[in-house]
Amino acid sequence: MDSFPDDDDRQFAFTLARGLEILRCFLPGVAALGNKDFVERTGLSKATVSRLAYTLTELGYLRHDKVARNYRLGGGVLSMGYPLLASMRIRQIARPFMRELALQVRGSVSLGMRDQSNMVYIECCPGDKRIRARPDVGAVRPILRMAMGRAWLAAVTPQEREVALNRLRIAVPDQWQLYGAQVQQALHDYQQAGVCFSYGDMQKNAYGVAAPLCAQIDAETLVFNCAVPAQSAQGRRLIDDIAPRLLTMVSNVEIAAGLR
């Protein structure tokens, strides 16, 4: 879990934050959780977890199975996210360009935004079936392990980047230990070529290249990612062929969206 601000931050609603942390305990493949699971994942007391789970159930964000004595996410969670997706006109603008690139390179092209220590996918054009676990809209992946996350770090202001990196070092120290050097290389790559890479760090059989939009959309830095099977990106194809195609696609989206 990402760390909370200091206790003396009077503007921060800790009870609300703890309730949201309960909802964040659910991950793909983890459909049902009990109070014991919430305690283990959040570090909160049993009494606090019980109170928060009850409240979230009453509000429709959780569903309680009295027989199995566990909780599942409720429809309230899904309905909260839809207005955000529906308001993102950039998704409709980018979709045909993304689909065209996915067909050209026989890969998967996605658009994402940051969510704490992860990137969340807001549009996806599936590509080559050899890439396992192809993401869907709403899927989250660790920032440090993927080209998309590294491109987000490269695109934001130095101050925003430093704050994010400090939080990542605290929230996911194991990932920082493993991928910190690749992140620094990605920042260098972005300065040189305008893109960031991942060579099997997210999936062993997939290479990725990512580039951000030139301007924020609704105060969000959005990033396009192109993933291709590792065996099809041998040699310098990822650098010399796929990366330029991705940059051209991003430029076309920016023009279509009136960003340049």
UniProtKB/TrEMBL annotation:
Q: Name all HTH iclR-type domain ranges.
A: 13-75
The Gene Ontology biological process annotation of the record reads:
negative regulation of DNA-templated transcription
Spell out the molecular function terms from Gene Ontology: DNA binding; DNA-binding transcription factor activity
Transmembrane listed as a keyword: no
| Keywords, sorted A to Z | DNA-binding, Transcription, Transcription regulation
The IclR-ED domain sits at 76-259
UniProt key word Transcription: yes
Protein's name according to its UniProt entry = Helix-turn-helix domain-containing protein
Which PROSITE patterns does the entry mention?
Answer: HTH_ICLR, ICLR_ED
